Amino acid sequence: MKRVVVTGLGTITSLGYNVEEVWSNTRNSYCSIEPITLFDTEDSSVKVAAEVKNYNSKDFFTSFNSKKYNRFTQFALIASAEAYKDAGITDNSVNSNRVAVVYGSGIGGDTIGKEYETCMTKGSKYVSPLLLPGNLVNMAAANIAMEYKANGTCMSLVAACATGTDCIGTAFRHIQFGMADIVIAGATEACINPLVVAGFASLKAVSRTEDKTRASIPFDKERSGFVMGEGAATLILEEYEHALKRNAKIYAEIAGFGTTCDAYKIVSPNPDMTQAKRAMEDAVKDAGITVGDISYINAHGTSTGLNDKYESIMIEDMYYKNGNTVPVSSTKSMMGHALGAAGAIEAVLSIKALEDSFIPETVGYKTYDEDCRLDFVTGHGRTKELHYVQSNSFGFGGHNSVLVFRNSKLL
Amino acid sequence: MEIFEKIKKIINENFTIEGKLTEETNITEGLGLDSFDFVTLVTTLEEEFNIEIAEEEMYQIKTLEDAVQIIQKKL
């Protein structure tokens, strides 16, 4: 099986418009949660979110393309442009049949509601022809493939909050099995709109706290739900020899991937945690290491009652009780939960952590919860030499997906 | 700005055009647009001129002059 490395990174989130900005703000423990501006929240029980700040599509796209591309596709293209340029890929360094795209989203387009209203009030002949080409979930992947003339696999995975991690893991397998030399992998989400926010509010999954400093507080006893975020992240995954041959910069190696399903309930994790633990075990085993080798875990840590409790207990059982009091932090404390994009964004942050020997803080943590007994890296970020970083993602539907990244110094 | 000039400006901002744009330019063949691009262009024009073009009207637009006429009618 081939080895797979990361040769390009790109992102756009509430913390910034590119990797440098986002990582710098992450290092500085900056919380980007603010009152919602994308719609009038008078009628909403949810008042805060982690929006991409002051985003204007015409800063990045022509007026024509601003209409063609739904917001989630725009974010995907922006992140992918940064990553592709970062990887320094030129036409003559790649075979386009062996450049693939694995790019997903949890929800996809967000103009369906508006078009439905138009259909019902004005009539069906006023429904925009852009409804479907704008909103279909695979439009991010398809537009990325068009942009980079990627003629290999073009796939769009969907697994709610585990989407990003699944896309990277699947891209990893593609290269391992020789199906591609390069994969533009990642995920995107942009659904901070009245309908989706109301949906999550009705599920009692989002925090209704108006205090932006106490809204996304993973592992804190006073946590009351997640805060919606948005954005996209792209990783350029490449077959190791292929990367060496073209002298590409190598950020890290994708060492392992584990993915299971609770097959239990849609929104609640299985309290016996068997399948979630198995996803972590599988990822570690796939990397050819043991739990003792993991230097840092970027947790799923959504700031919900159940996820944070079970995730803490699992990590304590598998790592702490086996002698590894691994530091665990949740970067959702700074950028909310970008749903389908979260796993991809957190992969970028995990790789930056490895590169910089720096563990981001779980920002805003104040009150101890007796169920969450781990080292959550509170108060400030931490400098530490990291060998292996693990990233967890657990999605609605019972999806458990875990990635392990190896420091490029160990290649 | 005159309607035709504004339409030309929008097209030039969004596409690379070879040759000159005239009133007789056929939108799909002349600009090399497929049906999806065509409807996106019409939607862009709707937004720029703050008008609404129903589906059956849209398919009557063949040349740039047709576009000018329809926009003029609605302004």
Automatic annotation (TrEMBL), chain A:
<dbReference type="InterPro" id="IPR020841">
    <property type="entry name" value="PKS_Beta-ketoAc_synthase_dom"/>
</dbReference>
<dbReference type="InterPro" id="IPR017568">
    <property type="entry name" value="3-oxoacyl-ACP_synth-2"/>
</dbReference>
<feature type="domain" description="Ketosynthase family 3 (KS3)">
    <location>
        <begin position="1"/>
        <end position="407"/>
    </location>
</feature>
<comment type="function">
    <text>Involved in the type II fatty acid elongation cycle. Catalyzes the elongation of a wide range of acyl-ACP by the addition of two carbons from malonyl-ACP to an acyl acceptor. Can efficiently catalyze the conversion of palmitoleoyl-ACP (cis-hexadec-9-enoyl-ACP) to cis-vaccenoyl-ACP (cis-octadec-11-enoyl-ACP), an essential step in the thermal regulation of fatty acid composition.</text>
</comment>
<keyword id="KW-0012">Acyltransferase</keyword>
<comment type="pathway">
    <text>Lipid metabolism; fatty acid biosynthesis.</text>
</comment>
<dbReference type="GO" id="GO:0004315">
    <property type="term" value="F:3-oxoacyl-[acyl-carrier-protein] synthase activity"/>
</dbReference>
<dbReference type="GO" id="GO:0006633">
    <property type="term" value="P:fatty acid biosynthetic process"/>
</dbReference>
<dbReference type="Pfam" id="PF00109">
    <property type="entry name" value="ketoacyl-synt"/>
</dbReference>
<dbReference type="Pfam" id="PF02801">
    <property type="entry name" value="Ketoacyl-synt_C"/>
</dbReference>
<dbReference type="InterPro" id="IPR014031">
    <property type="entry name" value="Ketoacyl_synth_C"/>
</dbReference>
<dbReference type="InterPro" id="IPR018201">
    <property type="entry name" value="Ketoacyl_synth_AS"/>
</dbReference>
<dbReference type="InterPro" id="IPR000794">
    <property type="entry name" value="Beta-ketoacyl_synthase"/>
</dbReference>
<protein>
    <recommendedName>
        <fullName>3-oxoacyl-[acyl-carrier-protein] synthase 2</fullName>
        <ecNumber>2.3.1.179</ecNumber>
    </recommendedName>
</protein>
<keyword id="KW-0443">Lipid metabolism</keyword>
<keyword id="KW-0444">Lipid biosynthesis</keyword>
<dbReference type="GO" id="GO:0005829">
    <property type="term" value="C:cytosol"/>
</dbReference>
<keyword id="KW-0808">Transferase</keyword>
<comment type="similarity">
    <text>Belongs to the thiolase-like superfamily. Beta-ketoacyl-ACP synthases family.</text>
</comment>
<dbReference type="InterPro" id="IPR016039">
    <property type="entry name" value="Thiolase-like"/>
</dbReference>
<keyword id="KW-0276">Fatty acid metabolism</keyword>
<feature type="active site" description="For beta-ketoacyl synthase activity">
    <location>
        <position position="161"/>
    </location>
</feature>
UniProtKB/TrEMBL annotation, chain B:
<keyword id="KW-0963">Cytoplasm</keyword>
<feature type="modified residue" description="O-(pantetheine 4'-phosphoryl)serine">
    <location>
        <position position="35"/>
    </location>
</feature>
<keyword id="KW-0597">Phosphoprotein</keyword>
<dbReference type="InterPro" id="IPR009081">
    <property type="entry name" value="PP-bd_ACP"/>
</dbReference>
<dbReference type="GO" id="GO:0000035">
    <property type="term" value="F:acyl binding"/>
</dbReference>
<keyword id="KW-0276">Fatty acid metabolism</keyword>
<comment type="similarity">
    <text>Belongs to the acyl carrier protein (ACP) family.</text>
</comment>
<dbReference type="InterPro" id="IPR003231">
    <property type="entry name" value="ACP"/>
</dbReference>
<protein>
    <recommendedName>
        <fullName>Acyl carrier protein</fullName>
    </recommendedName>
</protein>
<keyword id="KW-0444">Lipid biosynthesis</keyword>
<keyword id="KW-0596">Phosphopantetheine</keyword>
<keyword id="KW-0275">Fatty acid biosynthesis</keyword>
<feature type="domain" description="Carrier">
    <location>
        <begin position="1"/>
        <end position="75"/>
    </location>
</feature>
<dbReference type="GO" id="GO:0009245">
    <property type="term" value="P:lipid A biosynthetic process"/>
</dbReference>
<comment type="function">
    <text>Carrier of the growing fatty acid chain in fatty acid biosynthesis.</text>
</comment>
<dbReference type="InterPro" id="IPR036736">
    <property type="entry name" value="ACP-like_sf"/>
</dbReference>
<comment type="pathway">
    <text>Lipid metabolism; fatty acid biosynthesis.</text>
</comment>
<dbReference type="GO" id="GO:0005829">
    <property type="term" value="C:cytosol"/>
</dbReference>
<dbReference type="Pfam" id="PF00550">
    <property type="entry name" value="PP-binding"/>
</dbReference>
<dbReference type="GO" id="GO:0016020">
    <property type="term" value="C:membrane"/>
</dbReference>
<dbReference type="GO" id="GO:0000036">
    <property type="term" value="F:acyl carrier activity"/>
</dbReference>
<keyword id="KW-0443">Lipid metabolism</keyword>
